[in-house]
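Table S2 (text version). Query chain:
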Amino acid sequence: MNASNDRGSRLYLISIVLAAVIGGLLFGYDTAVVSGAEQALSEFFSGAGDFSYSSWLHGFTVSSALIGCVIGGAVSGILASSMGRKRSLVIAAVLFFVSAVGSWCPESWILPHGEPSLAVLVLFNFYRIIGGIGVGLASAVCPMYIAEISPARIRGTLVSCNQFAIIFGMLVVYFVNYLIRNSLGGSVAEIQAAMVDIGWRRMFLSEAFPAAAFFFLILLVPETPRYLTLRGRDDKALKVLVRINGQEEARQIHQEIKATVQEKKEKLFSYGKAVIVIGVLLSFFQQAIGINVVLYYAPRIFSNMGASVDASMLQTVVMGIVNIVFTVVAIFTVDKIGRKPLLITGSIGMTLGMTALSALSFTDTIGVAALVSIIVYTASFMMSWGPVCWVLISEIFPNTIRSQAVAISVAVQWISNFLVSSTFPSLSAWSVCGTYCIYAFMAVASAIFVYRWVPETRDKTLEDMSVLWKRK
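Corresponding C-alpha cell output:
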C-alpha cells in the first residue's frame, strides 16, 4: 500500500487515458466515415427532383461536419473552463450518438424515407454538423484532458496515444465500410444500388456503438487535477495526483499548479502574442498540407488511379494500417527525440511524397508509384504532424490561458480543414497536379516555420510554460 502510494498507480493512469482516447477514436471515426459513403451519397442526392446536386454541393456535404468542428472547437474553451474537461467530453459523446442516428435516417421519421430532396439534404448536413461539434469538442478537450492528467516525463507519449486512437478510429471505419459494402452481396451493379439505398446509412449508424461506449466510460474517469485546483477543489485535485504520481511527487506537482493558479487571472495575451500565433500556425499548417483531402477522398483518389471500387476500398484499409504503424513510431519517439525534430522530418517526407504525386498526376502515371507516393506522404504525416501537433497544442500554453488558447487553435484548425477539404473537388477539376503542388509548398513552409519559431517542450512540465513564455 505504501509502495503504491510512493510510486502512484500506472494502471489507474492507463485506464483513465484509455477511456479518454475513445474520444479520439470517435474523432477519427466520424471524420473518415464519409470516405466510404461519399460516392453513394452523390448518387442518392443526384436523384433529387427539386434541386440540382452540383459538385460544389457535394464538396460541402462531404465537408459539412467540419462546420460543426469549428463550432465545437470554438466553444470548447468556454465549456472546458465553465463545466470542466470531463463534462465537456460527456457532451461530446451525446453529440456523436445523435449524429450517428440522425445521419442514418436524415428524414427524421417525418419526411418520406428514401426519397432524396433538398429538405433531406439540409437535415443530413444538420446531423453531420451536430457530429462535427462533438468532434471539435473532443479534438480540443481530449488532448487537454490527457496532458493535464499525465506526468511530464510521459506526457508526449500519452497525448500521442490520442492521435493513435484517431488513426485507429479511421482504420476501424475504413474496415467497417469495407465490410458493410461487401455484406450487400450480388453483382457490382447490385452492390452499388444497395449502397445508394441502405449502404451509406449503415456506415453512419455504425458510429452509434462506440459513441455509447464512450458516454458510459467517460462517466467513470476523474476531473483533471489542474481544473479542480483552478476551481479551488484542492483536496480532490491532490487525491487524483496521489493516485497517479504517489504522495511526494503529487504534493510537489500540486504546489506548482497552485503557484500558477494563484497568479493574477490571465488575459489571453498576458504572455504575449507569440504563443497564440504559434499555436494558430501549428493548427493551420497541419491542415494546409492537405492530409484530410487524402483521408476523406481516399477511395475516390484510388479509383481515379485506375483501381476498381472494391480494390480502392481495400487500398484505403491498407493505407489505414500504414498510418497506424507510423503513429506508433511517433508515440515511442516523441518523448525521446523531441517535438521539433519529428515535425521537421515529417514535413520533408510529406514534401517528397506530395511532389512525387503531383509529378505522376501531371504525366498521367497511375498504379504502384502513385500508391507509394501517397503512403510516403501519409506515413510522414502520421509520424510527425498528426500526433505532435496535438501534443504541442495541449502543452505550450500556460495553465491560466490554456482553455482559451486551445479553443482558438482548434477552431483555426477546423476552419483550415473545412477550406482545404471543401475546395478539393473544385481545385482538382482545375488541375490535380497544381492542387498537389499547393500542398507540397505548404509542407515546405511548415518545416521552415517549425525550425524558426516553435520551441522544444520535451521534458518540461505544464507549469514551466508560464516561465518559458514570460522570458520571451
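Notes on Table S2: The two ends are 45 Å apart (CA to CA). The first helix runs from residue 2 to 7.
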